[in-house]
Every structure is written in C-alpha cells, then in structure tokens.
Design goal:
Helix content is about 50%, strand content about 15%. It has about 525 residues and is α/β, with parallel strands linked by helices. Among the domains are: about 20-115, Nucleic acid-binding proteins (OB fold (Dihydrolipoamide Acetyltransferase, E2P), Beta Barrel); about 140-280, Succinyl-CoA synthetase domains (Rossmann fold); about 355-375 and about 405-450, no CATH class; about 460-505, no CATH class.
Length: about 525
C-alpha cells in the first residue's frame, strides 16, 4: 500500500463552513426576530455615560445580568434616567454586539417598577404643568409677615387642624377660618380646589374676613392616599390663588404636585403654622433690644458730634481776625484806584494816537476818493460823445437796404435788451449805495478820531506862530498865539488883547450823484 495515497474525505468533512460574520449575523437575526419588543424588570446595576452621549447600564436579578444600552437620541427621550439600585421596567428590543460576541437590550423607555404606573403618570403630569409655567418661581408671592386671618383647608376631625391651632396659639394667636374638606378619596381633589377658590372669592368687607394666608394641610400616607393633591384641578387652583398659599401635605419625604404650585412648602402641618406667624415673645424681646440699641447709638452719636463741634470751634479764628486782612487789602486797592484809572486813560490815549486810522489818514483817503469821483465825472461827457460818434460811423458804413436795416435794428434791439437787463436800476444803484455807506462810515470814524470832538468837551488848542503849543516856554517864545475852541478861533496879539478870528469858511458842497 502506497503511503502517499489519498484516502478521501472523512465522514462529516462535507459540512458547510460559516465565516465568523455569517454566524454573528445569523445570531443577530434570530435574537432580534424573536425578541423584537420586550419589557424587562430588574434592578439597575452600574450606569456609564460615554463621551458620545450613549448610556450603558446593567439590568440584573438574583441570578443573571442583562447588558443594556440607550443611544444618545434615546437618552434625551427617557422619562426617567436609570440610577444604580433603582428597580425599573425597561422597554426595548434585544440585539447583539458581534465585535464582543454578546447580546444586549436596546432600551427605549424606563419606568420605576412597583408603583411605576402611578409614578409615570405623576411625572408626565408634572412635566406638562411645568411647561405651562405653573411652577415658575416668578409666580410665587411672599408670605405676609403677620397675617390677621389665616384660612386652613383640611379635615376638621383629624389631628392636623389641632396641631396647627395649637402651634398658632403658642407662637402668635391669630384668627383662623377652617374650610372642611375630604383629604382622601375620590371627592378629595374637587373639594380642596373648591375650598381654595372659595377663600379667594371672599370679599374683604364681607360678613367673614378674607384670609391673608392659606394653609392646605394633610397628614402622611401612601402615594395612593395623597393622590388627590396631585390632581390637575388642585394644582391649577393653587397656582391661580391670589392669596399666598402654604402647602403642608404629608411628611417631610412626601412630595405632591401642589407643593410645586404653592408659594411655600412646609414639611409638616406644624411647620406650616410656624412659617405663618412669628413668636410673639421673641418679637417683644427683639423690639426691646432694638429700642435699647437705638437709644444707645443716638446718645453716642450726639456725644461724638458735640465733642467734634467743640474741637472745631476751638480751632476757628475770631471773626475780626478773619476780616482784618480783606479790609486792609480793600483800603490799599481803593488808594491805588484813581492813579490806575488815570494811567489807563493815558495809555489808551497813546494807543489811539498811534492807531493806523489817524485823522490825517482818514482825511486823505476821503479826499482821494472824492478826486477819483470828480475825475470820472469829468471824463463822462467826452466818453459819451466818443461813443455816439463811433456808433454814428458804424451806422454810416452799413448798407441801408430794407432787409439789412431790419436785421441791424433787430440786432441792436437784442443788444439793447441784454444791456438793459444787465443795467437794472438795482444793479447800478447797489454799488453806489455801498460806496456811499462806506464814505459815511469813514466820515463818522473821522468825526470820532478828530480832535474837534475833544474840543466839544471843553478843551482848547493853542497855536503859536501856526504851530501847536504844548508848554509855557513855547507860548512865551511865540510872537502871537491863536486859541481854537469848539465854536471858533481867537487870536491873541502882542498887546495881550484877544481878537476873535474869523469863522472858518463852510466846506464846499459834496459831489452829487451822476445817475
């Protein structure tokens, strides 16, 4: 027998060979087909949230563990986030994770187990009412510090009302109105809501006083016992109450929806009474303490201010000493004032004599303007005659045919119209008015700067031999003196007899207008 002879395939060697992915896919299809939608109850184990937002946790019982996952989009839609140790009912579908050869539950919803139905309903209602803004902090009103009348909504036969009345009597007795209601059962929610609205409907001046504060109270119990205070009608009545409301339902660990809508939540009915009023004895002690402190502070403040005033008064100088210096300065200034005025007048007179617009300059400017005006008026007749002669020669050189004459006449008419338009009376008169106004202003300035205005105030000008005399020596040396007053000149001869000089000749008439 040949050692290398092929004996053929052994039994079973002709079975189909699967790849790993094929096996993983087949398992995935089987599991997802059989468990497309399942609800699993168990205790939540470890909870991990990846950076991607996906949540991984375990569901376990006393024998097995089921890996669970909620993807990022599913996590935001969960009504309850699973927490370690919580017993829940998870709803989802089974799937596999081939990379690690394991199966897992893709969780789409989580609700607490046991009282899960009630809790789910409660949470859904809470979210809906919160979305309407009934639980907003901005809606809550402050509790009055010392209400005159307190309205209590509770059962009249339970221990709750006795605890509230006892605590109010111990702290600060107030008027209490009790609205009896059923705090458990089917009619509880309607009666509580009606009581809250009834207290709010009371008028301030009615037979019964309107409460300044409301307390809705009940003792502890199971979630079913307290369910009436979770009803929507009660929550809306508490949120709509215009009277500040304190909710005191159950014990410290019990929370109902009316707690969210009320203005304050008290852990117990007794605590609600303590929130409603302060302790009268403590108020008296505090008031007495504040009064004593106020009196002590006022006395100490007055003492400090009196001492400070005495210190400041010792540091102040006498009134006479304060006024001595200013009075002396005033006397010194009064003594210097006449000399300063005379010096200022002299300085202004020198500045005026050195001013560019001296009387001589103004006079020469006026005379030059008058000369130019006279020269222009003298040239005007000759220029007019020359213009007429030029036009006459031009007219003689034209052919005097009918058509040419008409054209010439039309052309001259247009030229005459343009000249007339440019030589409107107002255009011609305006420059003349400007020049006349300037001439008048210069004449006024000449009058202002002229020494004649000084003569009008009572001064005189003395001339010796034709020159102005400013001192006694020059007057004695002069052969004859002439004194000029505001109304004329007077000659003083060698004999000492004054001789009135002739009045100056009147000025020549002003140049008239040419137009």
């Amino acid at each position: 027998m040949d050692l290398f002879e092929d004996d053929g395939p052994e039994a079973g060697d002709n079975a189909h060979e699967f790849t790993v992915s094929e096996i993983s896919g087949a398992v995935k299809k089987t599991i997802e087909g059989e468990f497309g939608h399942v609800r699993v109850r168990g205790e939540v184990g470890r909870v991990t949230v990846a950076r991607t937002g996906h949540m991984y946790f375990d569901l376990k019982d006393d024998r097995s563990v089921l890996a669970s996952v909620s993807w990022k989009g599913q996590v935001s839609k969960l009504s309850h986030r699973p927490e370690e140790g919580m017993e829940v009912i998870a709803t989802g579908r089974m799937t596999t994770f081939g990379s690690q050869s394991r199966y897992q539950l893709n969780v789409e919803e989580v609700v607490p187990a046991g009282a899960g139905a009630l809790m789910a309903m409660l949470e859904k209602r809470r979210q809906a009412l919160a979305a309407e803004g009934l639980f907003d902090e901005g809606r809550k009103r402050p509790i009055p510090y010392l209400p005159e009348v307190i309205g209590v909504v509770t059962s009249p036969t339970g221990a709750v009302i006795r605890d509230i009345l006892h605590r109010l009597r111990d702290r600060f007795p107030r008027k209490v109105l009790v609205w009896p209601v059923a705090v458990q059962g089917k009619s509880s929610a309607a009666e509580v809501a009606a009581a809250i609205r009834g207290f709010n409907a009371m008028s301030a001046g009615g037979a019964l006083p309107r409460p300044d504060l409301l307390i809705v109270a009940r003792g502890g119990g199971s979630i079913e016992d307290l369910w009436g205070f979770n009803e929507e009608i009660v929550v809306r009545a508490a949120a709509e109450s215009a009277i500040p409301l304190i909710s005191a339902v159950g014990h410290e660990t019990d929370t109902t929806l009316i707690d969210h809508a009320s203005d304050r939540r008290a852990p117990t009915p007794t605590a609600a009474a303590e929130m409603a009023v302060p302790v009268r004895a403590e108020l008296r002690a505090t008031l007495a303490q504040f009064g004593a402190r106020l009196e002590q502070c006022s006395r100490a403040g007055l003492d400090r201010r009196a001492e400070r005033l005495r210190d400041l008064s010792r540091a102040l100088p006498r009134a006479e000493a304060l006024l001595m210096g200013p009075a002396q300065r005033l006397d010194a200034l009064d003594t210097r004032l006449p000399g300063a005025l005379r010096a200022a007048i002299a300085r202004k007179r020198i500045e005026l004599s050195n001013h560019p617009l001296r009387p001589g300059l103004v006079t020469r400017a006026v005379e030059r303007g008058r000369d130019r005006l006279n020269a222009a008026s003298a040239r005007l007749p000759g220029a007019h005659r020359a213009g007429l002669a030029q036009k006459r020669l031009l007219l003689q050189g034209l052919r005097l045919g009918p058509s040419a004459l008409r054209r010439a006449v039309e052309q001259e008419r247009r030229t005459l119209g343009q000249i007339a338009a440019r030589l409107r009376p107002d255009l011609v008169q305006r420059p003349l008015d400007k020049r006349r106004d300037r001439l008048v202003a210069l004449a006024r300035l000449l009058d202002t700067l002229s020494y004649k205005s000084t003569l009008a105030r009572g001064y005189a000008v003395v001339r010796g031999d034709g020159a102005v005399v400013t001192d006694v020596a020059a007057a004695q040396a002069a052969a004859s003196l002439e004194i000029e007053f505001r109304d004329g000149r007077m000659q003083v001869g060698q004999g000492g007899k004054p001789k009135r000089a002739a009045k100056p000749a009147p000025p020549p008439p002003e140049q008239g207008t040419l137009l």
